[in-house]
Amino acid sequence: MWLRLVLAALPFAFFLGVVPWVNRTEPYVLGLPFFLFWLSLSIALTSVCMAVVYRLDPANRPDPAGSEEEG
Predict the structure, then answer these.
(1) pTM for this entry
(2) pLDDT greater at residue 60 or residue 21
């Protein structure tokens, strides 16, 4: 459970926790100012983190009996 919490908190740290250290325009990475590159990287890593949290969550695992509720 702690791994899910850490992975869910990681995007918060990516976006807000490191802003004082990455808020600059130099150097340019892939033609983007560093801060814009950092935000783009954070968005991509947030998707990865949330996908891993989804896979680790026991509520999202399929029913072992294979029965589906009829609605």
Answers:
(1) 0.66
(2) 21
